[in-house]
Predict the 3D structure of the following.
Amino acid sequence: MKIGLQIPEFNWAGGPTKLGSTLAQVARTAEQAGFESIWVMDHFWQIRGFGKPEQEMLEGYSALAFMAAVTSRARLGTMVTGAVYRYPGVLAKTVTTLDVLSGGRAWLGIGAAWNEAESRGLAIPFPPIAERFERLEETLQICLAMWEGNRGSEKPFNGKHYQLERPLNVPQSLSRPHPPILIGGGGEKKTLRMVAQYADACNLFPTPELAHKLDVLRDHCKALGRNYDEIEKTAIFSFDVGESGEKVGQVIGGLRWLAGMGIQTVIGNVPRIDRIKPLEIIGEKVIPAVAGLEPQVAAK
């Protein structure tokens, strides 16, 4: 089992003047502790469940680029970019830039977007959900086309919502054939079908429906002729090990349950992360304990 770190909030001791130095320390410590990847939310306001909209929130790709400069091994991505937040060509260029400058460590984490208040507040177009999914699919197609194309051989893209006369992308990503794509969400008709068709990984919530969601993904793969085993199965989690590690056993138990459900990679937040010690405890006691865990669910 691989372990990734999600950083969903920045309401840390010291306030904005300390954010840069604290984030650098968090990223370095996480990498040293053995976290395989580091993720940030692609939100402009804080979201429910983590705080009030007025609390500190960093723009995702700027934060990832900053962390790329202070790390050397951890993969980097958003959990997840709302497809309507950026023009697809700009998004492909942004992820490519992160990939090149990080030495080939970028992920494209993406979904259909859900935060209407945030979008309306910042004048980001927020069409109805059916259109957001259409735009998500076209965005995936455009990103893949831009990562595939060679200089001078780009073909125009003419979709329902986006028309690109020349989807040029130079330099190309270092990750080949492209930065891996993770699609977040468990929608059974659209989201998981797009995972089967376009993505390298899915990201699901750790609910009792998890095994069913993976069965749905398996069925979509069968219908599309995709190898289900090619797709990395990831889940969100909370690595709450307590102030001094007193909850380590509970965390390990939760990770074992997820492995039993078929999850290969767990990406979680760490409460009180700015104190650094919880990251060190996870590196010492959790990551080694679950390193050998394999997904246990048999093929359907």
Summary: The chain has nine helices and eleven strands. The mean pLDDT is 96. The CA atoms of residues 141 and 282 lie 38 Å apart.
